[in-house]
Write a structure and sequence with these properties.
The chain is mainly β. The chain is built from one helix and twelve strands; from the N terminus they run E-E-E-E-E-H-E-E-E-E-E-E-E. The protein has two domains: 82 residues, Beta Barrel (Elongation Factor Tu (Ef-tu), domain 3), CATH 2.40.30.60; 62 residues, PRC-barrel domain (SH3 type barrels), CATH 2.30.30. Strand 8 and strand 9 form a beta hairpin.
Length: 162
């Protein structure tokens, strides 16, 4: 996928028998998908016909031309991406997760300790999931008291990296 594409959701599988699919969302609001008529799904164009919220972090969607469960199942695992230029401007304090994935993490002395592999949110605040260079992972709160940001890296106090 091109670097200028941002993934908004992944197709988790079929939902029902009429061609709907369950989406895992990488956006806060399922309706934000509705502002995009067309998605790149692994080099294939999918046109959104309808979307509705489901459980937290998921939605149910229907795409043009997908009319039964068998066709819907063939879409499992595809990601839905749009060009970065199609996204709305960010408000203060907002960010795109894609801008942090793979970013280098260093300790306060500047020694590289790992890379960001995911950003999670379990209800309180965003959490950086860091793949450590020495092996394993660690999760740290993505807040100013713990993480300082520079253009090419994130600085995390060593005490959080144990």
């Amino acid at each position: 996928m091109a670097a200028d594409m941002i993934v908004l959701a992944a197709i988790a599988g079929a939902h029902g028998i009429k061609g709907e699919v369950r989406l895992k969302l990488f956006t806060d609001d399922p309706q934000s998908l509705a502002r995009h008529a067309r998605f790149d799904a692994g080099g294939r164009a999918l046109i959104l016909a309808a979307v509705r919220p489901d459980k937290p972090g998921t939605a149910i969607a229907r795409f043009e031309g997908v009319t039964d469960r068998n066709v819907a199942e063939t879409l499992r695992g595809l990601t839905l991406a749009v060009p970065r230029t199609a996204l709305p401007p960010l408000a203060d304090g907002e960010y795109y997760v894609a801008d942090y994935l793979g970013r280098t993490v260093v300790d306060e002395t500047g020694v590289a300790v790992g890379t960001v592999r995911a950003i999670e949110n379990f209800g309180a605040s965003d959490i950086l999931d860091i793949a450590l260079a020495k092996g394993g992972t660690v999760m740290v709160p993505f807040i100013a008291d713990v993480v300082r940001e520079e253009p090419d890296r994130l600085i995390v106090d060593r005490a959080w990296l144990q």
